[in-house]
Amino acid sequence: MKSLCLQPLLVPSALVDRRVFFANHLTTKCFPKQLHFNSRCVVVSSYSSSSATLSAESEVEKKQVFDGDKAALLVRELRNNFDSGKTKSYEWRISQLEAIAKMLEEKENEIIDALHKDVSKPRLEAYITEVFQVKSSCNEALQELKHWMKPEKVSTSITTFPSSAEIVSEPLGVVLIISTWNFPFSLSLDPVIGAISAGNTVVLKPSEIAPATSSLLANLLEIYLDNSAVRVVEGSVPETTALLDQKWDKILYTGSARVGRIVMAAAAKHLTPVILELGGKCPAVVDSNINLQVTARRIIAGKWACNSGQACISVDYIITRKDFAPTLIAALKEELENFFGKDPIESKDMSRIVSPTQFARLVKLLDEDKASDKIVLGGQRDEKKLKIAPTILLDVPEEALVMQEEIFGPILPIITVDNIEDSYGIIKSRPKPLAAYLFTNNEQLKKDYVDKISSGGMLINDAVVHVATRGLPFGGVEESGMGCYHGKFSFDSFSHKKAVLYKGFDSDPDIRYPPYTPEKAKMLRAILDGNIFAIILALLGWSK
């Protein structure tokens, strides 16, 4: 999921200026920082200008920054521990998954409290989208791990007869997971569960923009998990840069496409494969042939009740018919009031905007001349509370800023068309989204949408909940990402599928070896072609 902390820029070539790029464009807290390093984690502590004089111990800690040397040492330690073979066993993997399950049970309140501190997530929303999501992933891994680890038998051909074959899932080694701030708990631990299930050692880099959750993850994972195999590195630009300079066996990054390019370029130096979970402008096409109330409620749930729109899979904009738009807006208005009251800024059931920087960015989208006169609902904002009321804009021009970037907030443009099929061209004119939604009872329209619209995921007659569906992969396509995870897909993404063929010494026909006589050639061609009649003729020495 995407933080959108960067201004639109081209990625620096050759990565020589990567530190400068990160430092100038990644949103960080604007106060002095002190870095504490130990063998298990790096913790970033913040101090106000009124802080007392640092103790001698703190002065020593301040000098111990997490730099490239510390990162290299960390990776070397984890690789040595991986090479010992301890993480490959079923018993070790299960023990770590059980420890995560125990942590979730024992520390649920602390997790929800941290999420509230970071983005004011309502407790029920925090439980469902963060805690329960991780519980579900962990429980699935505990139930299915033995089956996932079992080699997959593969049939062999006559060219290798007699033989047997199988695909063995083996761990990749040392993996890096760089998480994000909008779902800072689930998007950190869900891939960690996959990496552990596959038998890897792991470094998790949580987002510094969600400091309470980041600190909690560092503390809890140190207490509950095997620190010789699972580590947490807290921090911001320097720490992330130091980690990216190392050689990993796989990197999973969740965030913006712009930083995704930097991660991918850093990985390319070592030919390290990557999973990039990015985002994009996720469309929702709304037909008039629908249950209006249910549609309105589900759009709201997939937008404003989903971290106040700060989700990479939230509905970014709606496309509907011009004559149906007023009806849809009226339904959305009614249900929004039912959900959040007449003054939604005061509602405890909506998350706040994560930071003043993000708040200012969203206000800029609303106050632009091309958009400000298109507001048909909402638009109120409270800078002190970092809250913006659910806002709907009608027929914003294509060149408006709100239509040029992923919104990632409580603003919803509605674009109108004469025919619902005209929506296809609008969607295809943009980069492929992480998710695409359609609301209709028209079966042909459903088939056409699935067939003609390319996206990371797709959901018909609902929003967002496809990511919680067991058995479905979660991932993007083109600009919205590459690779996927969730459940078995996580296990597979952090595993190498090794092809293994077994043969004995009993059968060793001369026809595969030189000299290649005409008789051998006839027999080999007959065998390779699978022509039984030709094989019989060759054995008898007859020509076909």
Task: Provide a short characterization of the protein structure.
The chain has helices at residues 18-25, 56-63, 68-83, 90-106, 108-119, 123-149, 186-197, 211-224, 237-244, 257-268, 292-301, 325-340, 356-367, 369-372, 423-428, 443-452, 488-493, 518-529, 532-540, and strands spanning 33-37, 41-46, 152-154, 163-171, 174-178, 201-205, 230-233, 250-254, 274-277, 283-286, 317-321, 375-377, 381-382, 387-388, 391-394, 411-417, 435-439, 457-460, 481-482, 495-503. With 544 residues, it is an alpha/beta fold.
Segments where pLDDT lies below 50 for 5+ residues? 1-63
What do the pLDDT scores average to? 89
Distance from first to last alpha carbon: 64 Å
The largest sheet is: 8 strands, mixed
Q: Using DSSP, what is the number of strands?
A: 20
Features:
globular, 19 helices, single chain, disordered N terminus, 544 residues, 20 strands, alpha/beta, eight-stranded mixed sheet, seven-stranded mixed sheet
Note down, in words, how this protein is organized.
With 544 residues, this protein is α/β, with parallel strands linked by helices. 40% of the residues lie in helices and 17% in strands. It contains 19 helices and 20 strands. It has helices spanning 18-25, 56-63, 68-83, 90-106, 108-119, 123-149, 186-197, 211-224, 237-244, 257-268, 292-301, 325-340, 356-367, 369-372, 423-428, 443-452, 488-493, 518-529, 532-540, and strands spanning 33-37, 41-46, 152-154, 163-171, 174-178, 201-205, 230-233, 250-254, 274-277, 283-286, 317-321, 375-377, 381-382, 387-388, 391-394, 411-417, 435-439, 457-460, 481-482, 495-503. The strands form four sheets. An eight-stranded mixed β-sheet has the order 1-2-7-6-5-8-9-19, with helices on both faces. Strand 6 (201-205), helix 8 (211-224) and strand 7 form a beta-alpha-beta unit. It is globular, with a radius of gyration of 27 Å. Residues 1-63 have low confidence and may be disordered.
